[in-house]
Q: What sequence folds into this?
């Protein structure tokens, strides 16, 4: 899978590209990341401006339509196939796991990172990108949001994760739209905190049942919105069960 990132700050990605799973995926030719400096498409004056004040007044500066459109067209002209344009903006559709799965099915993604007060509206009107937000907060630019998207998407590219099962077990993933169950490793006891017995017993069916139960319990307590229809009988049972747990172990959770 190939990502093209259009940014005024390509060096922000330096550390990220050379570490962990992403750098391994790049070395193994599973993922390609190409950075394009928007300033290279600025007018050839000494300061190479790419931003200007908004018409009608208001604070800050906007990224101009001309260098942006020229840059996108130049990048796309050098590549075959569909590029799937994405603008990172707090005005966009909220990024989530189904969107990451959709992106992972594409061969290419073109990520446009805004800065200042964002892009001139005509960037959206002309390029018709998908506008994507990583959450209801305002970042200083789209670069961190682009890294978030790349990070979530490459995990889903076949071969990138060593153990293909782990992205099925992950919270929100295709096999599991709930939060992940708690996990433990050695030691078995630390400062009086022990590992649940069921995980040590080797009964795989019991472990699977315990994990499914923990997953639903956590989701109910922390992210009820993920469970959908509250009329769901299974969830009602779980709630009754939870109340009993609270009575029996008032200090737990
Ligand atoms: N740029 C600034 N804030 C953003 C956000 N929340 N998501 C995506 N891009 C952004």
A:
């Amino acid at each position: 899978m190939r990502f093209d990132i259009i940014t005024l700050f390509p060096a922000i990605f330096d550390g990220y590209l050379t570490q962990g799973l992403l750098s391994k995926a790049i070395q193994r030719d599973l993922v390609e990341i190409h950075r394009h400096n928007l300033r290279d498409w600025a007018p050839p004056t000494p300061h190479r401006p790419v931003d200007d004040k908004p018409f009608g007044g208001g604070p800050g500066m906007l990224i101009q339509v001309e260098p942006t459109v020229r840059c996108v067209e130049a990048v796309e002209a050098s590549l075959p196939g569909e590029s799937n344009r994405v603008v990172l903006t707090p005005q966009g559709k909220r990024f989530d796991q189904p969107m990451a799965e959709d992106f992972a099915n594409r061969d290419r993604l073109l990520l446009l990172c805004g800065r200042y007060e964002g892009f001139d509206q005509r960037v959206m009107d002309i390029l018709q990108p998908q506008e994507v937000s990583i959450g209801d907060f305002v970042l200083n630019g789209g670069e961190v949001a682009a890294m978030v998207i790349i990070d979530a998407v490459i995990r889903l590219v076949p071969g990138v994760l060593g153990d293909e099962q782990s992205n099925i077990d992950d919270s929100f993933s295709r096999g599991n739209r709930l939060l992940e169950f708690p996990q433990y490793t050695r030691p078995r006891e630390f400062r009086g905190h022990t590992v649940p017995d069921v995980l040590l017993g080797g009964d795989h069916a019991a472990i699977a049942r315990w994990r499914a139960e923990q997953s639903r319990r956590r989701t109910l307590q922390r992210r009820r919105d993920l469970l959908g229809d509250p009329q769901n009988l299974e969830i009602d049972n779980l709630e009754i069960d939870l109340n009993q747990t609270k009575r029996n172990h008032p200090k737990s959770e």
About this structure: Residues 198 and 207 are 6 Å apart (CA to CA). Residues 204-222 form the longest helix (19 residues). The chain has nine helices and nine strands.
